[in-house]
Write a structure and sequence with these properties.
Elements (H helix, E strand, L loop, with lengths): L6 E7 L3 H12 L4 E4 L11 E3 L6 E3 L10 H9 L4 E3 L21 H19 L13 H5 L3 H7 L7 H15 L8 H9 L5 H4 L9 E3 L4 H8 L4 E2 L4 E5 L6 E5 L4 E9 L10 E3 L10
Parallel strand pairs: 1-2, 1-10, 2-7, 8-11
Antiparallel strand pairs: 3-4, 5-6, 8-9, 9-10
Helix pairs in contact: 1-9, 3-6, 3-7, 5-6
Main location: mitochondrion
GO cellular component, one term: mitochondrial outer membrane
InterPro entries: Amino_oxidase, FAD/NAD-bd_sf, Flavin_MAO
Length: about 290
């Protein structure tokens, strides 16, 4: 009977960085916690593999770390993991092999691109905040201009297709969207939302791709999981939260657990694989 099912203080579904770091915090407060993971491993969107008969570790998932990412850096320090720096072409060109596809930028082109990036940073700072961006008097003007139009009409780029190509590639890399599909306002709001602006977002020195972890990013999750109560390889089938402080969770294996609080630490795209009772609202958002 359900009355004989074990009651846990907190159940966390998902054994990625979010789930494991939450479990680590709750455990430090002596809160009885269980992490449930549908796959046979921890790590979530990080996945590190050793190349056969080699010492090299390759990351197949999330891997880059910037100097502004203080939480992950604190875990790396706590677990005595080693960081390695990105190989920058202008520092070690012989390590990266032959340039393919794009003609290398000359010094003047690099200067112009840096200047345009600096202008974007300054324009973003004109917004008092992300929340009030639409109230700024230039927002309506910026909203009807695409980033592509801005690039192609910019005096430092309008006569140089190579600069245009590089800037458009930068936009595509950082947003996964072509520059003609992005409004200038959206792009500036994105920059405004990030401390240090484009410097922190881009892949240059002190940017978002400055470091990797020498033995793979998944290793952080391995370390975090060592002292935690984790149930692997058992996807959740249903969640009954009719009783707010007595939530019933059933796994595909038939195993059941109750908890006072439930934390969903997985991609929202997986919500449809779980039967919720009552059903999740299609209109309510988190406050």
């Amino acid at each position: 009977m359900d009355d004989n099912i074990e009651l846990i203080d907190v159940v966390i579904i998902g054994a990625g960085f979010t789930g494991l770091s939450a479990a680590k915090y709750f455990s430090s407060k002596s809160i009885k916690t269980l992490v449930i993971e549908g796959r046979s491993r921890v790590g979530g969107r990080t996945l590190s593999h050793k190349i056969t008969d080699q010492q090299w570790i390759i990351d197949l998932g999330g891997q880059w770390i910037g100097p502004d990412q203080h939480r992950i850096l604190s875990f790396i320090k706590e677990y005595n993991l080693e960081l390695i720096e990105q190989t920058w072409h202008h520092h070690q060109p012989n390590f990266l092999g032959e340039n393919l596809g794009l003609i290398p930028l000359n010094n003047k082109q690099i200067e112009n691109i840096i200047e345009i990036n600096s202008q974007w940073d300054q324009m973003a700072l004109e917004l008092s905040s992300v929340e009030c961006a639409l109230e700024y008097h230039k927002s309506s003007q910026w909203s009807i201009i695409s980033v592509q139009q801005f690039i192609e009409e910019h005096p430092l780029a309008n006569q140089d297709l190579r600069i245009q190509q590089e800037l458009k590639l930068q936009i595509l890399t950082l947003t996964a969207c072509h520059s003609d599909k992005l409004s200038l306002l959206y792009w500036l709001i994105l920059i405004r939302s990030i401390p240090r602006g484009l410097t922190a977002l881009d892949d240059g020195i002190n940017g978002a791709q400055h470091y990797k972890i020498s033995h793979g990013s998944q290793n952080v999750c391995f370390e975090m999981s060592k002292n935690e109560n984790i149930r692997l390889n058992d996807p959740v089938e249903s969640i009954n939260y009719e009783s707010q402080d007595n939530i019933l969770i059933k796994m595909l294996s038939g195993y059941k657990i109750k908890c006072r609080r439930l934390l969903l630490a997985f991609s929202p795209t997986l919500l449809s694989t779980i039967n919720f009772l009552p059903s999740l609202s299609l209109t309510n958002n988190c406050p």
